[in-house]
Every structure is written in structure tokens, then in C-alpha cells.
Design goal:
- With 338 residues, this protein is of the alpha+beta class.
- The chain has three domains: 3-73; 83-89 and 228-335, no CATH class; 95-226, Metal Binding Protein, Guanine Nucleotide Exchange Factor, Chain A, CATH 2.170.150.
- The chain is 18% helix and 38% strand.
- The chain has six helices and 24 strands.
- It has helices at residues 83-90, 97-101, 138-141, 148-159, 229-244, 304-318, and strands at residues 3-8, 13-19, 24-27, 31-34, 39-41, 59-63, 67-73, 106-110, 116-119, 125-128, 167-170, 174-177, 183-186, 189-192, 198-203, 206-210, 214-218, 224-226, 248-252, 258-272, 276-288, 298-301, 325-326, 329-335.
- The strands form four sheets. Strands 1, 2, 6, 7, 19, 20, 21, 22, 23 and 24 form a ten-stranded mixed sheet that branches. The protein has a seven-stranded mixed sheet with strand order 10-11-12-16-15-14-13, with no helix packed on it. It has a four-stranded antiparallel sheet with strand order 9-8-17-18, with no helix packed on it.
- β13 (183-186) and β14 (189-192) form a beta hairpin.
- The longest helix has 16 residues, at 229-244.
- The radius of gyration is 23 Å and the shape is elongated.
């Protein structure tokens, strides 16, 4: 059986979907019970009339050929004026300077073998770098976009941001330092000294370590934190949603892979088969590139490993849904706060 429950705070609804080979017995404020004895949890408490069953006036059912869908009113009602407001309030970039300074000491280690790569004790200053998509957002900052020469000046200035000794720069997808003797250099590749895993690239600005190749360790508690490659894609999507109001994208890699995305219901909470609980997530429709598809509003270019990890996540979630497609699109969900 496939079961999905969505809490949509913007409209104050909990939507329940399950395959038609199961028969509903009744609904309580926190659970769905089937006639075969199976019980499924709800991601948010619902409102029912006395009797707590599917005949409540606060419950509406819809049955198609394969899936039964039920809508219940959520406790608290509609809590958000718009999903865009929710994304603006809740979205943040993982492992930013404010977050790391609160740790009062941390290590960055190789994600593969835990070999130490960077120790915060050696860095007196930690700075966040501007958005990696800042040039795409120029139209939002200027009523008249600068001409190519001025734009080139700004781009050159951005490229000249080089950390001094004891300075750590943090981009959306990488850490940048002036030098390091805790890794190996092979051409432009930065590798782990112990297991030889790729950690990043040597650039004109310094040593650039990809966040998804590292593990963050809290020096005080020993707690480990990971940055999945797909999280960089999600950060890019949320940045465009927040800054430009865009919901349709064409996600591409430099080697030609691409996918169309349509994002909506930002801020939802979903529970899938009582196994996967995702809070603060995005509902995403996706489809392969099609010459007839004319709706992509914005292109986002990401590294291949981030694209592949993002697609693997979408496909995994899609495979567990009771109704995995909608009008020719495939359906999935992904967290934007983890």
C-alpha cells in the first residue's frame, strides 16, 4: 500500500491519499485507520465532528481509478498569507557564518574517511560570500542594468575576493581559504591526504572545498552534520523563489543533462507510508526536457554530482507515492530546511 498525508498550512488543510486496494475504516484527529487494522499517522492534527469518522462535514473524499483522496480541515486553520512569505521567513543557507560562529569551534573533515581538513581555531575571521547567482539578480537591484563594461568590473571585483591568512570565506556551496597543508593537490583537484577522495578545486582565489565533500563536527558536542549535494540545488531554487518569485525552472549541468521543474506548496509537511516525514518541504513536479515545453522561466546550472543527487532524491520519493504523476509530470517532495 502507498500512503501520503500532506499538511498545507497556507490553506489549513490536511490531504490524505492512499491506493484503492485498502478500505478506510475511520479517521481520528491524529490517525487514519484501515479496515485491515493498519494505522497511519497524520502530519498535523485535524478537526472532526463528534464521532470522528469520514462522514464529518470537515472531511471531503475524492475517488479516482487508483487512488482515494480525503481532505480534512487542519487545527489552526490557514496560518500563512502566501507560501512565498513562508519561504522568505524560514529559508537559510546551510553552514553560513552565523551558524558556524554559534558553535564556538568546529572541524571540517573528509566526508569519506573523517580525516581533518580544516580547524576553526586557525581562523580569526569568517565571512559569507555574496550569492553565487548574484549576476542573475542584477535586474532586481537596478532600474537600469549596468552595461557590459560595468558588469565586467563587478565580476572582476567578485573574482578578486581572496581570503587572507586566518580568514575563512563561505560560499553557498563551498569553503574558501588562502592555503592548506592538510590536503593533496593533483592538477587543479584538491584531494584528501588519507583516502584520496576529491574535496574541491584549486582556484585563482585559493583552496575551494565543496561542502558536500566535507562533514562538519561541532567541537563542543562532537555532533556531525552533513551537506548533501542536492541541498545546493534546493538552495538555488529557494533563492530564485525568494528573490524573483519564479516557480518554473530548467535545471541543467555543463555536460548537457537537464530537467524541467515546477515548484509549489512551499512550507508543506508530508508523511509517506509512516516512514518518511518531511517538514518545511517543497512539492515539485518534474519532467524530462521536451521540445514542446515552453514554460521554463529560469535556468539554473549546477554541478553534475548535485544534479544527480537531486534527481535520485526526487525519484526515490516519487516511487513511494500512491499517485506518482500529474498531467504528464512526475510528483515528488524535497526539504528546503534540513
Amino acid at each position: 500500500m502507498a500512503y501520503l498525508a500532506e499538511y498545507l498550512p497556507r490553506i489549513g488543510i490536511v490531504q490524505i491519499s492512499f491506493t484503492d486496494n485498502y478500505e478506510l475504516d475511520h479517521i481520528t484527529e491524529k490517525q487514519v485507520l484501515m479496515k485491515n487494522g493498519e494505522t497511519f499517522n497524520l502530519p498535523h492534527q485535524v478537526i472532526l465532528d463528534p464521532g470522528n469518522d469520514a462522514t464529518s462535514k470537515n472531511v471531503k473524499s475524492l475517488v479516482n481509478e487508483k487512488v482515494i483522496s480525503i481532505r480534512c480541515k487542519a487545527v489552526g486553520g490557514a496560518r500563512l498569507k502566501s507560501s512565498a512569505n513562508h519561504s522568505t521567513l524560514c529559508f537559510y543557507e546551510k553552514w553560513n557564518s552565523i551558524e558556524l560562529k554559534k558553535l564556538h569551534g568546529f572541524f571540517l573533515v573528509c566526508n569519506n574517511c573523517q580525516e581533518k581538513v580544516l580547524d576553526s581555531i586557525y581562523y580569526d575571521k569568517i565571512y559569507d560570500l555574496p550569492s553565487e547567482n548574484w549576476t542573475e539578480l542584477m535586474d532586481l537591484w537596478h532600474c537600469h542594468k549596468p552595461d557590459e563594461n560595468v558588469n565586467f568590473f563587478y565580476q572582476s571585483s567578485m573574482n578578486n575576493l581572496i581570503p587572507a591568512n586566518k580568514e575563512l570565506f563561505i560560499g553557498e556551496s563551498y569553503f574558501l581559504i588562502n592555503n592548506s597543508n592538510a590536503c593533496l593537490i593533483k592538477g587543479k583537484l584538491i584531494e584528501c591526504k588519507k583516502c584520496f577522495s576529491e574535496l574541491g578545486m584549486l582556484s585563482a582565489n585559493g583552496y575551494k572545498f565543496n561542502k558536500w565533500n566535507l562533514c562538519l563536527i561541532n567541537n563542543s558536542t562532537g555532533e556531525l552534520s552533513y551537506f548533501r549535494p542536492y541541498e545546493f540545488v534546493v538552495q538555488n531554487i529557494m533563492q530564485h523563489v525568494k528573490s524573483m518569485g519564479v516557480r518554473r525552472f530548467k535545471l541543467i549541468t555543463r555536460d548537457g543533462k537537464s530537467i524541467f521543474l515546477w515548484c509549489f506548496d512551499i512550507g508543506t509537511t508530508v508523511l509517506i507510508n509512516n516512514e518518511i516525514l518531511m517538514e518545511n518541504c517543497i512539492k515539485i513536479l518534474y519532467k524530462d526536457e521536451d521540445s514542446s515545453e515552453k514554460h521554463a522561466e529560469e535556468e539554473i546550472t549546477v554541478p553534475k554530482e548535485c544534479f544527480d543527487d537531486f534527481m535520485s532524491y526526487l525519484i526515490l520519493v516519487n516511487s513511494k507515492l500512491p499517485d506518482p504523476s500529474f498531467l504528464g509530470w512526475r510528483l515528488s517532495y524535497i526539504n528546503y530546511i534540513s
